[in-house]
Design a protein that fits this description.
Helix content: 55-70%
Oligomer: single chain
Distance between the termini: 37 Å
Strand order of the largest sheet: 1-2
Number of helices: 4
Structural class: mainly alpha
Strand content: 5-15%
Number of strands: 2
Length: about 200
């Protein structure tokens, strides 16, 4: 008995991991958290440097008796916190720790995804082996049912023997269908890990 459907295994484990790491939203979110925390660290570091600002104003009044109908103003400010009792340095350290914590969280997410893909591949390998065994069992059951039918035709087997052979054949067909389902489910499991 030949398998009734062609099964093509999914790509390699490394390809599935690469695709999963590129497409999974939890990895994207972890990477965005790292970028956000790095921006927060950069903002905290900016307190080490002076702050500069400038503003300008111009006004012209028509139909006035004022001596100077035009006024303008230009203001520039600079501020630099020189003594803050270590507040800026501590804020930069805390922001750095948040960046490292975000990186550790991202590593955990990536490791979990690699583990999930590995488990899916192992489940798929097991399902493929079970299907091969079910195919062999079905071939044996078909041959057994044929041989038992031939023996019954010549009077060497009883009706019970024929029923037992048919029961074994039915169970082998059921096992083959279940193994095919498990194989399909394993393939879809890998697809799920790669697609999300």
């Amino acid at each position: 008995v030949e398998p009734d459907d062609a099964w093509v295994p999914p790509g390699s484990f490394e390809e599935a991991v690469r695709i999963a790491l590129d497409r999974r939203p939890d990895v994207k979110a972890a990477r965005l958290r790292i970028a956000g925390e790095a921006a927060g660290r950069a903002a905290a570091r900016s307190d080490f440097f002076p702050k500069l600002s400038a503003a300008g104003y111009y006004d012209r009044q028509k139909e006035t008796l004022a001596v100077r109908p035009e006024t303008w103003e230009l203001v520039g400010t600079a501020s630099w916190r020189i003594w803050d009792w270590g507040k800026t340095k501590n804020a930069v350290r805390a922001a750095g720790r948040r960046v490292e914590a975000s990186r550790a969280d991202a590593t955990l997410v990536e490791d979990r995804i690699v583990r999930d893909v590995r488990e899916a591949f192992l489940d798929l390998d097991e399902a493929a082996e079970n299907r091969a065994a079910a195919d062999a069992g079905l071939r044996f059951a078909v041959e057994n049912a044929r041989a038992t039918g031939d023996r019954f035709d010549v009077g060497l087997a009883t009706t019970t023997d024929v029923l037992d052979a048919e029961t074994i054949l039915t169970q082998a067909r059921l096992d083959r269908a279940k193994a095919g389902y498990d194989l399909l489910a394993g393939t879809l499991g890998i697809g799920w890990h790669r697609a999300l």
